Amino acid sequence: MAPLVALQKQADELSQEDRESLLAYLIHGLPGAPEGPDDDEVLRRDAELESGAVKAVSHEEFLRQVGRDGR
Fold first, then answer.
1. In this structure, are 51 and 71 located in the same domain?
2. d(Cα 28, Cα 20) in Å, to the nearest integer?
3. Does 42 share its domain with 68?
4. Residue 69 CB neighbours (<10 A)
5. Of residues 8, 1, 3, the one with CA closest to residue 23
6. Residue 1, helix vs strand vs coil
7. CA-to-CA distance for 17 and 47, rounded, in angstroms?
8. Are residues 71 and 40 in the same domain?
9. What per-residue string of b and e applies to 33-60 under the rule 16 or more CB within 10 Å gives b?
10. Which structural domain, as residue segments, surrounds residue 25?
């Protein structure tokens, strides 16, 4: 059996949480992978929240808005 196929079969047997962790690990190992917001972006977003320009939503509300509410 090819090594990649064997790894894929092993990944299929992982829990969702472990698969998500593996995915994050693999993505961050790729050249040019997104690393998240930089310090300037974090400060800008914090200022928007503090000023009331944007409204924070709960994690549950965010998942509902992006259509990942488990339904």
1. yes
2. 12
3. yes
4. 11
5. 8
6. coil
7. 33
8. yes
9. eeeeeeeeeeeeeeeeeeeeeeeeeeee
10. 1-35
Tokens, residue 59: 């994690």
Q: Position of tokens 């997104």?
A: 34
How far are the Cα atoms of 1, 10, 14, 40 from residue 62, in angstroms, in the given order? 42, 31, 26, 23
34: tokens are: 């997104």
In a shared domain, residues 41 and 15: no
* pLDDT tens digits, 49-64: 999 999 999 999 999 9
Q: What is the pTM of this model?
A: 0.47
Percent of the chain with pLDDT over 90: 73
Find all residues with CB under 8 Å of 63, minimum gap 6, and list them: 69, 70
> Tokens 């961050």 — which residue?
28
Identity at 33, one-letter amino acid code: A
| Segment holding 41, helix H or strand E | helix 39-51
